[in-house]
Amino acid sequence: MQSSIDDLRLECNWQSKCLLRLQRFYSVSDMVALFKTYLLSRIEYKTPAIFHCTKTRLASVDRILLRYLNELGVSLEASLIDFNLAPLAIRRDIAMLGFIQKCVTRQAPEPLLDLFLFDNSLSSDVKKHPRHLISMLQGTPSRLLTRSVWGLVPVYNKLPSEIAMCNNIRFFQRKNPRYCQRCLL
Questions:
Q1: Do 95 and 44 touch, CB atoms closer than 8 A?
Q2: What's residue 153's pLDDT?
Q3: From CA 154, how far away is CA 53, in angstroms rounded?
């Protein structure tokens, strides 16, 4: 994993420096669009492989966006509000919540469909939505498991019903930014 993160970081740092050389020819919104076009897809391509890394290792990937926005003079808040560009940590959580939703709605490939099990033991007044999942974390002291996609199951269970019951993954991921940050829940 570390070599994958290092390769990604080196490649993206080089490309972001090349893009920043064009800054005098483009507006800030065009520069953000260039980042989204050329770098964001490369970074997000590796999300499932690096999602369970520690925060310190993922910080080097997160700094790619922070450094780029800093050079443009744009804050993280402004990038989210003005350019619809959320921090990479939030984008990773949204992507993996989308993976859970694909498995739950049976849109994922066949071998992945049974990774998450529905919790039918709870009463309907305890559940937030009918797609409540069994948490694999109960009674497990493993920190690696909490950093994996199973660590997002408690977050998924807290989603409002209108989001969790959505079968359209794009809509699901667009409506999720305020619910996806694990550290706030």
A1: yes
A2: 85
A3: 19
